[in-house]
Design brief:
9-stranded mixed beta sheet; mainly beta; 164 residues; two-stranded parallel sheet; 1 helix; Cathepsin D, subunit A, domain 1
């Protein structure tokens, strides 16, 4: 029997995505179907009001093991809620909505802001962001491709100066 439902695309356990409204061109994410909501590493979180609405500004370090590359971002505050961290402890987190770009699609996702300095990935992509769009294959990585790598300059070998 044929299914009338659209076939879901398969993605890997880690991927590269973009968060265009936050100014993040690419960030490596760990796809975490055990987490309901996505979590983004953020620091210097400040609350403010703009045109009567609650907003939050924060810093993002999108590159792993790099605190020098900083993206300053702002987003409308969706709220705050308790979330269990990877250690099982409840912590209050800021929640925002922001568009995510992956493959040839852009759609809004809910993201909590938290400190992920000690974690291997700057962002977890939770199951709500993937729902009805993708199937996760834990044996695959970077189905959406990898960002271009910087070419290292080749150093010409030293010549001459030897004995004859």
């Amino acid at each position: 029997m044929l299914s009338s439902k659209k076939e879901k695309r398969v993605i890997g356990w880690r991927e590269w995505i973009a968060l265009p409204d936050l100014g993040v061109k690419r960030i490596k994410v760990k796809v975490d179907t055990g987490a309901r909501t996505s979590a983004l590493h953020a620091s210097n979180i400040e609350f403010f009001t703009r045109r009567g609405l609650h907003w939050v500004r924060f810093d993002i370090h999108p590159k792993q093991r790099d605190t020098r590359s900083t993206v300053h971002a702002e987003a409308q505050l969706l709220g705050q809620r308790p979330v269990r961290n990877s250690g099982g402890r409840a912590e209050h987190r800021v929640v925002i909505h922001t568009p995510m770009r992956f493959l040839d699609e852009v759609w809004p996702i809910e993201v909590t802001l938290t400190g992920r300095d000690q974690m291997g990935f700057r962002m977890l992509l939770g199951r709500e962001a993937l729902r009805r769009r993708f199937t996760v294959d834990p044996a695959r990585s970077y189905v959406g491709g990898r960002p271009p790598t910087k070419k290292k300059k080749k150093v010409a070998p030293a010549t001459g100066g030897g004995q004859a």
